[in-house]
Amino acid sequence: GQNIDQPTEMTATEGAIVQINCTYQTSGFNGLFWYQQHAGEAPTFLSYNVLDGLEEKGRFSSFLSRSKGYSYLLLKELQMKDSASYLCAVTRGSTLGRLYFGRGTQLTVWP
Amino acid sequence: EAQVTQNPRYLITVTGKKLTVTCSQNMNHEYMSWYRQDPGLGLRQIYYSMNVEVTDKGDVPEGYKVSRKEKRNFPLILESPSPNQTSLYFCASSLYGAGSAGELFFGEGSRLTVL
Is the bond into A111 cis (omega within 30 degrees of 0)? Predict the structure, then answer.
């Protein structure tokens, strides 16, 4: 398998900013996805990074450094509804059908 | 409405009794895949299909079979279920392969318990 690491749990308060990190060791790395999964629901797509740099999409931004094997998801102006598990997933260029997920980071947002 | 539909959503069965979890998508997606999700282990890929009649193994294919006879359907077959296959199963699809920029669309999940 691929080594994909992300923190198991994080907590933050409403209105704050939180950064969820993901590191990976993947030969032939192609791109990195972030998905959000609320309890009891299916994952939903947040972002996809293939080039180095920051991609901003509303309150959520995702960053990738290919040379460091590192990504983060930045959530601004946190809301209670952002309490969810955030899944980092990587793809390899040689196997486009394969998607390798990290174990997810459970974020709890407190009022 | 664009969606991925899985059935059944919940199932309790016994060891050795063959079962099929169906998955259907109405988005004309070429790529479909099955995952299982277990506490502490995250999502693990079981099988995937890049197109009709093209299937391949993921990380945990043992004990499962799939077929892709038509574009919209990708059933997951457990020929002889065992308790270690108790899990939450997700079907997903995307326009092209998982490595493309296209997002994966997930079904609502099927919770399977094998006694």
Answer: no
* Interchain CB distance below 8 Å, A103 and B42: yes
CA distance B92 to B24: 9
- How high does pLDDT run on average in chain A? 94
Q: In the predicted model, is pLDDT for residue A38 greater than 90?
A: yes
Q: How far apart, in Å, do the first and last CA atoms of chain B sit?
A: 36
Beta bridge partners of B56: B48
Yes or no: say if B42 and A104 are a contact pair by the CB < 8 Å rule. Answer: yes
Span A64-80, mean pLDDT? 97
Residue owning tokens 């988005």? B27
CA A78 to chain B, closest CA, distance in angstroms equals: 24
Which chain A residue's Cα is nearest to B59?
A1
> Does A5 score more than 60 pLDDT?
yes
| Confidence (pLDDT) at A96 | 75
Q: Encoding tokens for residue B45?
A: 């890929």
Closest B-chain CA to A46: B103
Distance from the Cα of A2 to chain B's closest Cα (Å) equals: 10
Residues 6 or more apart whose Cβ sits within 8 Å of residue A14:
A78, A79, A80, A109, A110, A111
